[in-house]
Amino acid sequence: MTVFDNGLSAIRLTDHERTAIRELSEFGLYEALLGRRSRRFPVGGSIPGGPLAFTSRKESRPLTDVQRALVLATVTGQTGWHFGITRHPDYAPQFPNYNGSAIGRVIPSAAGFHTTDFFFTDDSGTYFLSTRDDVLDTAWQSGSLDDQDDVEAALNAVIARAVKLSDDRLYLPRQQPYLEGHNIWIANWPGSLLVIPVADLAQQTLLNIAFFNQNGYAIYDDVNDRPIPGIDTFAHRLHNFDEPQPLSFIEQYSLAEASAELMTASYAGHLALGGIGLGGWSFDGIDRISMLGASGNPDVPGLGFRYDEDPRWSMPNPTGREGIFETSTIAHHGSARAVVEALVERKFGAGGPYHPPTPGRWRDNPGVRGSAAPFDEEFVELLTLQLQYIDDTFGKFPGTVPSVWIMNYLQAQHLDTDFYDTLFTPGAYLPTHAREQERWQS
Fold first, then answer.
1. Number of domains in the chain
2. How far apart are CA 39 and CA 4, in angstroms?
3. 82 — alpha (psi -120 to 50), left (phi > 0) or beta?
4. Which among 124, 157, 368, 401 could disulfide-bond with 138, CB atoms 3.0 to 4.6 Å apart, if both were Cys?
5. What is the pLDDT of residues 356-406, one digit of tens each?
6. At a CB cut-off of 8 Å and minimum separation 6, what does 307 contact?
7. CATH number for the domain harbouring residue 80
8. What DSSP state is assigned to residue 100?
9. The whole model's pTM is what?
């Protein structure tokens, strides 16, 4: 058995699993949509009292390697190259250059920014799984479920990217404020897989500032009711300069867009659970500050993100984990200019959406990608000015929202159908749940 550097075993599909994947390929969209429910009670679970009191007679057990890989590939998986922003009259004849990434994923992303990446934890440890850049050699593409060899290659390509951060399941005390009260009994339960989408909200905001600047708008500090000092020197390239966009609006706009990425990632995984026959649900009932490592309790390191505190803020502000998930903040890049230059590299450098050699779906990929207007020196200075002002004024970037954002988690686990047979009417789970162990475990 091949083992990757992260300690995860390579997938080698058995005949039994190949049959299960063939059945999974036949599971319909509307079956997934209409059959989606939060099914929280796992094997090994217990509700000690109340109208739904029940104790499982089965032991907790982890997902199989194939089940775990299927869930991870669904939530995080890349699906090839996206089509870019097809046209914008203000850019013609050049190709619009909004995108942050060249890849398409299962999740949609506003303007192709793709600022979300992923962590996960289970009984084998805690991991980082990045899929927002560098397209996999074997993408998780339409039609691939019809060929089990393609499935095997795609699943291995996903799990090989995981970076192991710890040999232990992520620790969160079973009490508030770490877990929301109604999740204390079950969140991050032994045997479960917990997938944690995390957004670089700082980069989402910087990309949106660039977006509005490119569309001719200046940014106005509506919180302090003043223009950004020095921005008037760039008025000649901002044709809507007299109609500035409020900073608080842009940051809330960025928060909403990033939340959509996080939610659709967990939702895609939730739909997949029905097809695989797993229990679980999408939820937001884990304290994000504790998850990121800023709870203030040294016994609860969470994901180990660095964070800052300031009397002006109501909560600490995590900014990332060095060498793993580094946000577009001065804390991780050293200066506002370096933050902007890193963004330029992501967009226009090797593998980026506007790097001519990057492959894609067009017949003339170099011609299309190479036609996008670069961020010239003046535009880099404009972005640097605004980022530096926000950081100086509010003590962080972005100014009014966190630098890192978590919204929804996905938990996947083996369902104890006895609980539902005893306390629910028929139809509380799907036929795939009834046959889960038979289908996936020979």
1. 1
2. 32
3. beta
4. 157
5. 999 999 999 999 999 998 999 999 999 999 999 999 999 999 999 999 999
6. 292, 293, 294, 316, 317, 318, 319
7. 3.40.109.10
8. S
9. 0.96
